[in-house]
Amino acid sequence: MKNLILCLALTITSAMVYGQNTNVQSEVKTTTTTIKDSEGEKQIVKKEKVQEVQHIEMKQEKSDPLNKEMKDTPVQVTATTEVTVDGVTKTVDVDRSSYYNLNGKKYQVSHDNSGYTVFSDSGKKAAVLRKTSNNNYIYSTKNRTSIGYFDNDGNLVLETYDNRTDKITLEKFIIVKP
Is the pLDDT score of 16 beyond 60? Predict the structure, then answer.
């Protein structure tokens, strides 16, 4: 019986230690608009939810157990908007359609039925972006497939695995601010 309790206590404490490996920040902004017209009064409620998730990693795993330095890791941002009009609620993801620069070339990311399409400066289809279940995107061209996400600044960051070097390379499409 003692061994059972000891094993159970050890399992619970180890699960608690490993369960706390992310920083999560959530923000909800609610805007209520009332419109009066000849048909009466309509109320529109708009809720904007932004959640930022950052996985925690240490720079040196085998250093001093106290005051370890954190390694900079990418922050994944999920933004959704709920609009309620006359009691009907619709959920809309944030539209990331915009112009982006990469290596001196301009690209246009446009929303389509299945996600986004990336067009080159000449207007030719360069790639497609498809949303995954964990709020990342699959970036697919004729020659390669990458994982992408949008950072806090709205830039599109791609992570591509290279078989020859066994490394992951990062590319950042910088959003063009209007």
Answer: no
